[in-house]
Amino acid sequence: MANGFNLNFEKPIVELERQIESLRETATARDLDVHGEIAPLEEKLTTLRREIYSDLTPMQRVQVARHPRRPYTLDYIERVFTDFVELKGDRLFRDDPAIVGGWARLAGDPVMVIGHQKGRDTKQNLQRKRSSTPPVLTPGWAPRSGARRRPSRGTWKRWRPSRSPSSPP
Fold it and tell me: What string of H, E and C letters represents the secondary structure of the chain?
């Protein structure tokens, strides 16, 4: 948790983590066995985390949800899936950098993964457009002039070869 950005209510957790880490470093430097001292501290840390995070105020929940070190789509993909192949673009216009999607395997089964991706810093936020996607053309929505030049009607028919709806891809 000691990652350089901690919320106020996380301070007791961070202090206990530092104490455990300091004890481990001292034990390693002096070649001591401190498992007996660390085990109760780790249990206390688990209990403390459970108590703090189970009793958050609404504002604290928002802070946790917006935490800059919170995992994003690519973090989950890296840890949960294997053989991820990212797909890009819509074959007619452009790629949306705020959306990450592609084929992957989950426990050996092929799956499609799609999610928003934010940046971790200003450069990545600009590259990912702050995870903001353009609106989808829907009835009643007035498209911008660029969308009028690139109508979406018929896109699927032009992209997909003629097959019956039940045909496998």
Answer: CCCCCCCHHHHHHHHHHHHHHHHHHHHHHHCCCCHHHHHHHHHHHHHHHHHHHHCCCHHHHHHHHCCCCCCCHHHHHHHHCEEEEECCCCCCCCCCCCEEEEEEEECCEEEEEEEECCCCCHHHHHHCHHHCCCCCCCCCCCCCHHHHHCCCCCHHHHHCCCCCCCCCC
